[in-house]
Amino acid sequence: MRRGPSKRGRRAHDVAVYAPSGSLYYGEKRDYMGGAEVQATKIAHALKAKGLRVAHVVYPVPEPRRVDASSPTLVERSKWQGHRRLGQLAETRAIWRGLERADADAYIVRGSGGHVIPASAFCRARNRRFVFSSSSELDFDFARPDRNPRMLQIYKGSLRLAARLALQTEQQRELALRALPRSDPVVIPSFAEPGPSSNGTGEYFLWADRLVEYKLPDSYLELAAALPEARFRMVACHMSETPPGMVERIEAAAERLPNLELLPPRPRSELLEEMQGAVAVVKTSRVEGMPNTFLEAWARGVPVLSLSVDPDSKIARNDIGVVADGSMERLTEAAASLWRDRALRTAMGERARLFIQDVHSPEAVAKRWVALLEELI
Fold first, then answer.
1. Separation between Cα atoms, residue 312 and residue 317, nearest integer Å
2. CATH of the domain at 132
3. How many CB atoms lie within 10 A of CB 182?
4. Among the four 163, 164, 191, 322, which has the fewest Cβ within 10 Å?
5. CA 66 to chain centre
6. H or E element in which residue 292 lies
7. pLDDT tens, position by position, 5-40
8. In which element (H, E) is residue 220 found?
9. Over pLDDT 90: what percentage of the chain?
10. Residue 372, pLDDT score
11. Contacts by 142-151 with C-beta closer than 8 Å and gap 24+?
12. What's the pLDDT at 32?
């Protein structure tokens, strides 16, 4: 049932979603966005479709815009300020101003990072409801060696201010309760839009991810080397956090593998087309939340091959791919089986589409978000 306008009416919006890199979604090309930004954008649209007054706080949107009646209200904050002198202070002020302009009863803030601290402080100062929405198990790792220990503790304190923690998986819920035992986390599955079925017609394996250490891109190269009879494609996104030398190492290795095609980042629509033509999507990460690539592959009837990650054992329990438990030998064997056996990957794909429909469809997930927000506001 659609909600009518807010009965409270004190604020301009019922809820604001803070995910500034989601600005790319509203541009003409809808370029590459990380999984957190994709999910946050879907949350904003789904809640708008349910009748809530929704704002999406974003960086300036590139022209020409692609905004229609289904879009939430766009509240544009300034570009990222961290590169400036006193950048952390300037960035805090930019976040605060963006949230202030959104003027909402509740604020959904997606993923860990420096933005969580000022966002939680704003909500506390203005008596607004702060909802933290997780994007990875790393959101609850408060001893990460790649982060400032003092800032991690401040970030942890910010999570204690959340009215609710909205988590993707039961695994994340366990991590949150271990670190924040007084919290009351709720698990809300990630969104997956329906897509056309591949019907097992894939022609290559696909790895599409950021070039960072914990994603283990070299393991995908090892897989390609182990199966010279199969074809592989790799969409590798170079980020500010990409370690020095990794791009050159990956490019040099790809040159030596005639069955591997290394592709640059591309707009989201083109990436989904690549996925449509895959035998399976391969994930080599050590740790993830609920990867968008899993959901988007399953929605298209494409199995997933995962070296280590299987959130809440969804792959194993539903038989919609193979998780190798960290074993390259098992990953190679599974890839060889899927490459040879179209009937096997078609059956996995059909089960995957049914799983997405039942658990991760926009309608099913939006109901859970609406219930949470009605409880809070």
1. 9
2. 3.40.50.2000
3. 6
4. 163
5. 21
6. helix 292-299
7. 444 558 999 999 999 999 988 987 666 667 788 899
8. helix 217-226
9. 75
10. 96
11. 142/179, 151/114, 151/117
12. 61
Within 13 Å, how many C-alpha atoms sit on residue 278's CB side? Answer: 31
| Three-state helix/strand/coil letters over 163-200 | CEEEECCHHHHHHHHHHCCCCCCEECCCCCCCCCCCCC
pLDDT for res 62: 84
**Is 5 part of any domain?**
no
Specify whether 332 is located in the same domain as 366.
no
Please provide residue 91's backbone torsions phi and psi, each rounded to the nearest 5 degrees. -70, -40
Kindly state the DSSP code that residue 7 receives in the 8-state scheme: S
Task: Tell whether 33 and 111 lie within a shared domain.
Answer: yes
Structure tokens at 257: 């593998």
Higher pLDDT, residue 194 or 116: 116
Structure token pair of residue 258 = 């005639």
- Going across the sheet that includes 278-283, the strands are 260-263, 232-237, 204-210, 278-283, 304-306, 321-323
Q: Convert the pLDDT of each residue in 78-110 to its tens digit.
A: 998 877 777 789 999 999 999 999 999 999 999
What are 235's strand-pairing partners?
Answer: 208, 263
The contacts of residue 273 (CB under 8 Å, 6+ apart) are none
Q: What is the DSSP-derived secondary structure letter of residue 357?
A: I
Whether residue 134 contacts residue 173, with contact meaning beta carbons closer than 8 Å, is answered with: no
Q: What is the pLDDT of residues 317-375, one digit of tens each?
A: 999 999 999 999 999 999 999 999 999 999 999 999 999 999 998 888 999 999 999 99
Residue 205, amino acid = F
